[in-house]
Design a protein that fits this description.
alpha+beta; Glutamine Phosphoribosylpyrophosphate, subunit 1, domain 1; 2 domains; about 475 residues; 6-stranded antiparallel beta sheet; Rossmann fold; single chain
């Protein structure tokens, strides 16, 4: 608890009512972003006269932004969708995604999960070229850069219309020609951006998915009926009864069009996937880069039990992402697992409270202890991370108030000592309790009887035990070494 999610993206090609399906997929990715949501849809699977992209987006949860009647105006078989948590840019409707660039001859829409580290210099360069921006989001910078490259290559957005460079009078050849110009432009653009990105991009007639060379943010490919789906997590494919095919590889671009499904390797893979996808961000029913998330959490708990055993009567997990690790800890230690803590599923996000003190107090509203599980017991409580330490202190208070005789705090990730610059909303370094204090000091600060974190080596061991081919994880928040 304490980290904030990044974003969730979805793209669907060749399915009736693509926008409605995006809605269901996006709802399954709601844990990745709760600030805004949006869907862009093309009203034609194969561009021709009158085809165009429509966009609907707003602030709030997916279910707040979309009503049943909205989908009457969002008919089409190609769509992309986005659920946002702010990492770069403020929390305003102007920064809600997808972003749409509309031209006289066509449109391009983009949804982005991740964060760029060179967006300021790219934005300044594009402004020098005469580009204007309607938001402060780095995602709009990516879109404008793609458009710039497309125009430089001689293209005119709007598939199915003659480009200036087109030599053939056959409309199918013109569509193919413009498509290749767009793919070329996207490859040129993503080679200039630095940071983390998983992208869903669409025009009136094609869908494209792109994952950064480090694979920091996840993206996967599935089949849905006679069409295809791109999504941040496999659970979004399951939500629409689709078939998971594979992960999009780091440095890969996937093109989905009429009678066209292609993979283009635009950069050498230098895998440094975000390790917190397995600890906290991803849903437990997802599979990312060949690792089942829930299995990884079980194994982290087992390793944690082997590294930091303690005598106790029960093991509990902090909902939701601490539960898998708690079950693994209980299995390895032989200490019974009990529910212990209940989460109020109807409470809003704590950032709506105007002061830090009120946000901290919201923990008592969001979480409550089951006294019959805890009274008179020595309790091991498993959480996914300790960030500022304030939530952990409140948790210990809740458990003691419920009658726990001892509270032993265990954490299924190593101490977080450095902020993230690649798509996770973390506090500054001086606000991270592990950057300023050692384990004993943190234990006293949160009021626990003992405290232990999993080792970084133990965490990597747990992940590799789930997939022996797993390799290359971003460990920047633990050691300060970043892939970009």
């Amino acid at each position: 608890m304490g980290f904030q999610d990044e974003c969730g993206v979805v793209g669907i090609y060749g399915a009736t009512n693509a926008a409605r399906l995006c809605y269901f997929s996006l709802t399954s990715l709601q844990h990745r972003g709760q600030e805004s949501a949006g869907i862009a849809v093309s009203n034609n699977t194969y561009a021709g006269s009158g085809s165009k992209i429509k966009l609907h987006k707003g602030m709030g949860l997916v279910s707040d932004v979309f009503k049943a009647e909205d989908f009457d105006a969002l008919a089409g078989q190609i769509a992309i969708a986005h659920a946002r948590y702010a990492t770069a840019g403020g929390r305003t409707i102007e920064n809600a995604q997808p972003f749409l660039n509309t031209f006289k001859l066509g449109s391009i829409a983009l949804a982005h999960n991740g964060q760029l580290v060179n967006h300021d210099e790219l934005k300044a360069m594009l402004e020098d070229y005469g580009c204007t921006f309607s938001s402060t989001s780095d995602s709009e910078v990516i879109l404008k850069l793609i458009v710039r490259k497309f125009i430089e290559n001689g293209g005119k957005p709007g598939s199915g219309r003659r480009s200036e460079a087109a030599q053939s009078s056959d409309i199918d050849n013109q569509v193919q020609y413009d498509k290749e110009l767009l793919v070329k432009a996207i490859i040129q653009a993503v080679k200039e951006i630095r940071g983390s990105f998983s992208l869903c991009i669409m025009t009136e007639d094609i869908l494209i998915g792109v994952r950064d060379p480090n694979g920091i943010r996840p993206l996967c490919l599935g089949k849905i009926g006679n069409g295809h789906i791109l999504a941040s997590e496999s659970c979004a494919i399951d939500a629409v009864n689709g078939e998971f095919l594979r992960d999009v590889a780091p440095g890969e671009l996937v093109v989905i069009g009429k009678n066209d499904l292609r993979s283009i390797k635009y950069a050498e893979e230098a895998k440094q996937a975000c390790i917190f996808e397995y600890v906290y961000f991803a849903r437990p029913d997802s599979v990312i880069d060949g690792i089942a998330v829930q299995k990884a959490r079980y194994r982290m708990g087992e390793v944690l039990a082997n590294e930091s055993a303690v005598q106790a009567d029960v093991v509990i997990g902090v909902p939701d992402s601490g539960i898998g690790a708690a079950m693994g800890y209980a299995r390895a230690s032989g200490i019974p697992y009990v529910t212990g803590i209940i989460k109020n599923k109807y409470i809003g996000r704590t950032f709506i409270a105007p002061t830090q003190a009120e946000r901290e107090s919201m923990v008592f509203v969001k979480l409550n202890a089951i006294k019959s599980d805890l009274a008179g017991k020595r309790v091991i409580v498993i959480d996914d991370s300790i960030v500022r330490g304030t939530t952990s202190r409140r948790l210990v208070q809740i458990l003691r108030r419920a009658g726990a005789s001892e509270v032993h705090f265990r954490v299924s990730s190593p101490p977080v000592k450095f902020p993230c610059y690649l798509g996770i909303d973390t506090p500054s370094k001086n606000e991270l309790i592990s950057s300023e204090h050692d384990v004993d000091e943190i234990c006293r600060e949160i009021g626990a009887d003992s405290l232990a974190f999993i080792s970084l080596e133990g965490m990597i061991e747990a992940l590799r035990s789930c997939n022996p081919q797993a390799d290359g994880f971003c460990e920047g928040c633990f050691c300060g070494r970043y892939p970009v």
